[in-house]
């Protein structure tokens, strides 16, 4: 694991101030059409005003940011939450209640491509979800056998919806994934911070 990379918690104002640098990480990791970046930055600024917002940035010893992650409490009235829960209401109402009744929405987790494979993404994910009071964490990721899906699965995430198409992006299939909080320790049946006799009540 990369030991010379620190994780910094950024409050919402600091996150917004750092967004130009974070957007460079997003662009390197996701390679989106350049004309979409300005709109994506506006969305991230809006996300910083959601309740329970939290962000974490990975910073190397020289002060350069190489990764970031953020999320917030999911609730009705938020676009992603409403689109996903509406689909679940049709396909699996029990899953909607179980995973989205009290959820932490992980909106973004990105690491510069040249820094991937060093455990930074996993550290960001654990730091971001540490001490959250929500019962579950939820996210969307590209469908298929990607490195990101492998990371999420190792932390306890499972598919809630597979081959899901968001409005406006019908060509790109996504997996909607969810996990109990706190997240599972890789290679263990137990979960971080959870008692051996703790039972999930659904």
Automatic annotation (TrEMBL):
One function term, GO molecular function aspect: acyltransferase activity, transferring groups other than amino-acyl groups
Cited Gene3D superfamilies: 3.40.630.30
Domain N-acetyltransferase per the UniProt entry, residue ranges: 5-182
Keyword Transferase on entry: yes
UniProtKB keywords: Acyltransferase, Transferase
Annotated TM spans: none
Top-level taxonomic group: Bacteria
Name of the protein in question: GNAT superfamily N-acetyltransferase
Species of provenance: Nocardiopsis mwathae
